[in-house]
Amino acid sequence: MSNLPKIAWIGLGIMGSPMSENLLKAGYSVTGFTLEQDKLDRLAAAGGSAAGSIAEAVADADVIITMVPASPQVEAINYGPNGILENAKSGALIIDMSSITPQTSVDLAKNAAEKGIRVIDAPVSGGEAGAIEAVLSIMVGGEQADFDAALPILEALGKVIVLCGPHGSGQTVKAANQLIVAVNIQACAEAVVFLEKSGVNLEAALDVLNGGLAGSTVLTRKKDNFLNRDFKPGFRIDLHHKDMGIVTDAARNVGAALPVGAVVAQLVASLRAQGDGGLDHSALLRAVERLSGAQV
Fold this sequence. Notes:
- The chain has about 300 residues and is α/β, with parallel strands linked by helices.
- The protein is built from 14 helices and 9 strands.
- The protein has helices at about 15-25, 35-45, 55-60, 70-80, 85, 100-115, 125-135, 145-155, 170-195, 200-210, 215-230, 235-255, 260-275, 285-290; strands spanning about 5-10, 30-35, 50, 65, 95, 120, 125, 135-140, 160-165.
- Helix 9 (about 170-195) crosses helix 12 (about 235-255) and helix 10 packs antiparallel against helix 11.
- The chain is globular.
- The model has no long low-confidence stretch (mean pLDDT about 95).
Protein backbone atom coordinates (compact mmCIF):
# COMPACT_ATOMS: atom_id res chain seq x y z
CA MET A 1 0.00 0.00 0.00
CA SER A 2 1.22 3.47 -0.87
CA ASN A 3 2.04 5.92 1.91
CA LEU A 4 1.19 8.80 -0.40
CA PRO A 5 -1.89 10.85 0.47
CA LYS A 6 -5.16 9.88 -1.17
CA ILE A 7 -6.29 12.54 -3.61
CA ALA A 8 -9.75 13.59 -4.73
CA TRP A 9 -9.86 15.65 -7.94
CA ILE A 10 -12.93 17.77 -8.70
CA GLY A 11 -13.09 19.22 -12.22
CA LEU A 12 -11.59 17.28 -15.14
CA GLY A 13 -11.54 19.81 -17.96
CA ILE A 14 -8.85 20.80 -20.45
CA MET A 15 -6.40 21.39 -17.62
CA GLY A 16 -7.72 19.06 -14.93
CA SER A 17 -7.63 15.83 -16.93
CA PRO A 18 -3.93 15.86 -17.86
CA MET A 19 -2.97 17.20 -14.43
CA SER A 20 -4.79 14.39 -12.63
CA GLU A 21 -3.13 11.90 -14.97
CA ASN A 22 0.29 13.28 -14.04
CA LEU A 23 -0.50 12.55 -10.39
CA LEU A 24 -1.42 8.98 -11.32
CA LYS A 25 1.92 8.66 -13.14
CA ALA A 26 3.64 9.91 -9.97
CA GLY A 27 2.09 7.07 -7.99
CA TYR A 28 -0.82 8.86 -6.30
CA SER A 29 -4.27 7.35 -5.86
CA VAL A 30 -6.76 9.73 -7.52
CA THR A 31 -10.54 9.60 -7.25
CA GLY A 32 -12.23 12.10 -9.54
CA PHE A 33 -15.59 13.71 -10.05
CA THR A 34 -16.78 15.92 -12.87
CA LEU A 35 -20.03 16.45 -14.74
CA GLU A 36 -18.91 14.87 -18.03
CA GLN A 37 -18.98 11.08 -18.17
CA ASP A 38 -16.33 10.91 -20.91
CA LYS A 39 -13.88 12.70 -18.62
CA LEU A 40 -14.59 10.23 -15.83
CA ASP A 41 -14.03 7.39 -18.30
CA ARG A 42 -10.70 8.97 -19.30
CA LEU A 43 -9.59 9.13 -15.66
CA ALA A 44 -10.55 5.51 -15.08
CA ALA A 45 -8.69 4.45 -18.22
CA ALA A 46 -5.58 6.18 -16.88
CA GLY A 47 -5.76 4.23 -13.62
CA GLY A 48 -7.86 6.53 -11.46
CA SER A 49 -11.25 5.97 -9.86
CA ALA A 50 -14.47 7.67 -10.95
CA ALA A 51 -16.85 8.86 -8.23
CA GLY A 52 -20.57 9.39 -8.60
CA SER A 53 -20.65 12.60 -6.55
CA ILE A 54 -18.49 15.16 -4.82
CA ALA A 55 -19.35 13.61 -1.45
CA GLU A 56 -18.20 10.18 -2.61
CA ALA A 57 -15.00 11.57 -4.13
CA VAL A 58 -13.85 13.48 -1.06
CA ALA A 59 -15.04 11.21 1.76
CA ASP A 60 -11.74 9.39 2.24
CA ALA A 61 -9.39 11.92 0.67
CA ASP A 62 -6.39 13.42 2.44
CA VAL A 63 -6.01 16.07 -0.26
CA ILE A 64 -8.78 17.54 -2.42
CA ILE A 65 -7.76 19.34 -5.60
CA THR A 66 -10.31 21.50 -7.36
CA MET A 67 -10.01 22.89 -10.89
CA VAL A 68 -13.23 24.52 -12.06
CA PRO A 69 -13.91 27.58 -14.27
CA ALA A 70 -14.77 30.46 -11.91
CA SER A 71 -15.82 31.65 -8.46
CA PRO A 72 -19.49 30.53 -8.74
CA GLN A 73 -18.37 26.98 -9.49
CA VAL A 74 -15.86 27.01 -6.61
CA GLU A 75 -18.64 28.08 -4.26
CA ALA A 76 -21.04 25.47 -5.69
CA ILE A 77 -18.67 22.54 -5.17
CA ASN A 78 -17.54 23.59 -1.70
CA TYR A 79 -20.71 24.75 0.04
CA GLY A 80 -24.03 23.09 0.81
CA PRO A 81 -24.95 19.61 2.04
CA ASN A 82 -23.44 17.90 -1.00
CA GLY A 83 -20.31 20.07 -1.09
CA ILE A 84 -16.73 19.48 -0.10
CA LEU A 85 -16.81 21.20 3.29
CA GLU A 86 -19.71 19.08 4.57
CA ASN A 87 -18.24 15.79 3.35
CA ALA A 88 -14.45 16.01 3.65
CA LYS A 89 -12.79 14.68 6.77
CA SER A 90 -11.32 17.02 9.36
CA GLY A 91 -7.65 17.71 8.62
CA ALA A 92 -8.03 17.36 4.87
CA LEU A 93 -6.22 19.86 2.65
CA ILE A 94 -8.02 21.58 -0.23
CA ILE A 95 -5.77 22.78 -3.05
CA ASP A 96 -7.92 25.04 -5.20
CA MET A 97 -6.23 25.42 -8.59
CA SER A 98 -9.10 27.34 -10.20
CA SER A 99 -8.61 30.94 -11.30
CA ILE A 100 -11.04 32.97 -9.19
CA THR A 101 -11.30 36.24 -7.29
CA PRO A 102 -8.89 36.64 -4.38
CA GLN A 103 -11.82 37.30 -2.03
CA THR A 104 -13.43 33.96 -2.93
CA SER A 105 -10.22 32.23 -1.84
CA VAL A 106 -10.06 34.21 1.40
CA ASP A 107 -13.68 33.37 2.21
CA LEU A 108 -13.21 29.69 1.39
CA ALA A 109 -10.18 29.41 3.67
CA LYS A 110 -12.08 31.03 6.54
CA ASN A 111 -15.15 28.81 6.14
CA ALA A 112 -13.07 25.66 5.74
CA ALA A 113 -11.07 26.43 8.88
CA GLU A 114 -14.32 26.29 10.89
CA LYS A 115 -14.64 22.66 9.73
CA GLY A 116 -11.03 21.81 10.52
CA ILE A 117 -10.15 21.77 6.82
CA ARG A 118 -7.07 23.50 5.44
CA VAL A 119 -7.00 25.43 2.16
CA ILE A 120 -4.44 26.90 -0.20
CA ASP A 121 -5.19 28.72 -3.44
CA ALA A 122 -2.86 27.49 -6.17
CA PRO A 123 -3.84 28.76 -9.63
CA VAL A 124 -1.58 27.88 -12.53
CA SER A 125 -0.14 29.30 -15.73
CA GLY A 126 1.07 27.37 -18.74
CA GLY A 127 -2.08 26.31 -20.53
CA GLU A 128 -2.98 22.88 -21.81
CA ALA A 129 0.56 22.19 -23.04
CA GLY A 130 2.01 23.05 -19.63
CA ALA A 131 -0.55 20.82 -17.95
CA ILE A 132 0.27 17.88 -20.20
CA GLU A 133 4.03 18.35 -19.82
CA ALA A 134 3.80 18.99 -16.03
CA VAL A 135 5.72 22.26 -16.40
CA LEU A 136 3.11 24.64 -15.03
CA SER A 137 3.91 27.73 -13.02
CA ILE A 138 1.97 27.52 -9.76
CA MET A 139 1.35 30.60 -7.61
CA VAL A 140 0.20 29.79 -4.08
CA GLY A 141 -1.57 31.64 -1.29
CA GLY A 142 -1.93 30.25 2.22
CA GLU A 143 -0.04 29.12 5.29
CA GLN A 144 3.59 27.96 5.05
CA ALA A 145 2.85 24.60 6.70
CA ASP A 146 0.05 23.86 4.24
CA PHE A 147 2.24 24.88 1.32
CA ASP A 148 4.97 22.55 2.56
CA ALA A 149 2.45 19.69 2.81
CA ALA A 150 1.19 20.33 -0.72
CA LEU A 151 4.59 20.83 -2.33
CA PRO A 152 5.35 17.20 -3.28
CA ILE A 153 1.99 17.01 -5.04
CA LEU A 154 2.48 20.34 -6.80
CA GLU A 155 5.94 19.23 -7.94
CA ALA A 156 4.25 16.47 -9.96
CA LEU A 157 2.26 19.15 -11.78
CA GLY A 158 4.60 22.07 -12.32
CA LYS A 159 8.15 23.39 -12.35
CA VAL A 160 7.94 26.87 -10.80
CA ILE A 161 6.03 26.69 -7.51
CA VAL A 162 6.05 29.73 -5.24
CA LEU A 163 4.25 30.69 -2.04
CA CYS A 164 3.27 34.30 -2.75
CA GLY A 165 1.67 35.25 0.58
CA PRO A 166 -1.48 34.65 2.63
CA HIS A 167 -4.80 33.29 1.34
CA GLY A 168 -5.80 35.01 -1.91
CA SER A 169 -2.24 35.93 -2.87
CA GLY A 170 -2.01 33.15 -5.43
CA GLN A 171 -5.14 34.48 -7.11
CA THR A 172 -3.80 38.03 -7.12
CA VAL A 173 -0.60 36.89 -8.83
CA LYS A 174 -2.63 34.81 -11.30
CA ALA A 175 -4.69 37.89 -12.16
CA ALA A 176 -1.46 39.76 -12.91
CA ASN A 177 -0.33 36.82 -15.01
CA GLN A 178 -3.50 36.92 -17.08
CA LEU A 179 -3.08 40.66 -17.59
CA ILE A 180 0.45 40.16 -18.93
CA VAL A 181 -0.56 37.22 -21.13
CA ALA A 182 -3.53 39.02 -22.69
CA VAL A 183 -1.53 42.16 -23.47
CA ASN A 184 1.29 40.02 -24.87
CA ILE A 185 -1.05 38.02 -27.13
CA GLN A 186 -2.65 41.23 -28.34
CA ALA A 187 0.75 42.71 -29.20
CA CYS A 188 1.76 39.51 -31.03
CA ALA A 189 -1.53 39.49 -32.95
CA GLU A 190 -1.04 43.09 -34.06
CA ALA A 191 2.52 42.29 -35.15
CA VAL A 192 1.31 39.28 -37.18
CA VAL A 193 -1.23 41.36 -39.11
CA PHE A 194 1.32 44.14 -39.66
CA LEU A 195 3.93 41.68 -40.94
CA GLU A 196 1.53 39.85 -43.25
CA LYS A 197 0.14 43.04 -44.74
CA SER A 198 3.73 44.17 -45.33
CA GLY A 199 4.48 41.05 -47.38
CA VAL A 200 7.09 39.65 -44.99
CA ASN A 201 7.67 35.90 -44.55
CA LEU A 202 5.70 35.50 -41.33
CA GLU A 203 7.34 32.31 -40.08
CA ALA A 204 10.84 33.73 -40.58
CA ALA A 205 9.85 37.01 -38.95
CA LEU A 206 8.39 35.33 -35.85
CA ASP A 207 11.48 33.13 -35.51
CA VAL A 208 13.86 36.09 -35.46
CA LEU A 209 11.60 38.18 -33.23
CA ASN A 210 11.39 35.34 -30.73
CA GLY A 211 15.20 35.22 -30.56
CA GLY A 212 15.46 38.83 -29.38
CA LEU A 213 13.98 41.10 -26.76
CA ALA A 214 10.52 40.68 -28.30
CA GLY A 215 10.66 36.96 -27.60
CA SER A 216 8.38 35.47 -24.98
CA THR A 217 6.82 32.25 -23.74
CA VAL A 218 3.57 33.49 -25.27
CA LEU A 219 5.15 33.80 -28.72
CA THR A 220 6.84 30.42 -28.37
CA ARG A 221 3.60 28.70 -27.33
CA LYS A 222 1.28 30.54 -29.73
CA LYS A 223 3.43 30.94 -32.85
CA ASP A 224 1.92 27.92 -34.59
CA ASN A 225 -1.58 29.08 -33.68
CA PHE A 226 -0.88 32.35 -35.48
CA LEU A 227 0.81 30.72 -38.46
CA ASN A 228 -1.86 28.06 -38.99
CA ARG A 229 -4.88 30.02 -37.75
CA ASP A 230 -5.38 27.09 -35.40
CA PHE A 231 -7.54 28.28 -32.54
CA LYS A 232 -8.41 24.93 -30.97
CA PRO A 233 -8.83 25.89 -27.32
CA GLY A 234 -5.90 25.47 -25.00
CA PHE A 235 -7.25 28.36 -22.96
CA ARG A 236 -10.61 29.71 -24.08
CA ILE A 237 -11.46 33.36 -24.71
CA ASP A 238 -14.45 32.87 -22.37
CA LEU A 239 -12.09 32.08 -19.49
CA HIS A 240 -9.69 34.90 -20.30
CA HIS A 241 -12.67 37.27 -20.40
CA LYS A 242 -13.52 36.11 -16.86
CA ASP A 243 -9.91 36.61 -15.76
CA MET A 244 -9.70 40.11 -17.22
CA GLY A 245 -12.80 40.97 -15.23
CA ILE A 246 -11.05 39.71 -12.09
CA VAL A 247 -7.90 41.75 -12.65
CA THR A 248 -9.65 44.98 -13.64
CA ASP A 249 -11.96 44.75 -10.63
CA ALA A 250 -9.13 43.90 -8.22
CA ALA A 251 -7.00 46.73 -9.61
CA ARG A 252 -9.84 49.18 -9.13
CA ASN A 253 -10.20 48.06 -5.52
CA VAL A 254 -6.54 48.78 -4.74
CA GLY A 255 -6.31 51.97 -6.83
CA ALA A 256 -4.02 50.59 -9.58
CA ALA A 257 -4.46 52.02 -13.09
CA LEU A 258 -4.48 49.49 -15.96
CA PRO A 259 -4.80 51.68 -19.07
CA VAL A 260 -3.53 49.12 -21.58
CA GLY A 261 -5.10 46.22 -19.72
CA ALA A 262 -8.50 47.91 -19.82
CA VAL A 263 -8.29 48.25 -23.60
CA VAL A 264 -7.27 44.61 -24.04
CA ALA A 265 -10.08 43.54 -21.69
CA GLN A 266 -12.53 45.28 -24.02
CA LEU A 267 -10.97 43.59 -27.06
CA VAL A 268 -11.34 40.20 -25.38
CA ALA A 269 -14.96 41.06 -24.56
CA SER A 270 -15.66 42.12 -28.14
CA LEU A 271 -14.19 38.90 -29.52
CA ARG A 272 -16.43 36.93 -27.19
CA ALA A 273 -19.45 39.00 -28.26
CA GLN A 274 -18.71 38.07 -31.87
CA GLY A 275 -19.09 34.38 -31.09
CA ASP A 276 -15.42 33.45 -30.60
CA GLY A 277 -15.58 32.76 -26.87
CA GLY A 278 -14.94 29.05 -27.29
CA LEU A 279 -11.70 29.60 -29.23
CA ASP A 280 -8.17 29.76 -27.85
CA HIS A 281 -7.09 33.19 -26.61
CA SER A 282 -4.65 33.39 -29.53
CA ALA A 283 -7.84 34.09 -31.53
CA LEU A 284 -7.31 37.73 -30.52
CA LEU A 285 -5.65 37.65 -33.95
CA ARG A 286 -9.13 37.40 -35.47
CA ALA A 287 -10.17 40.64 -33.79
CA VAL A 288 -7.13 42.47 -35.19
CA GLU A 289 -7.83 41.03 -38.65
CA ARG A 290 -11.42 42.27 -38.50
CA LEU A 291 -10.27 45.73 -37.45
CA SER A 292 -7.82 45.66 -40.38
CA GLY A 293 -10.56 44.95 -42.93
CA ALA A 294 -10.34 41.16 -43.28
CA GLN A 295 -13.44 38.96 -43.43
CA VAL A 296 -12.96 36.26 -40.77
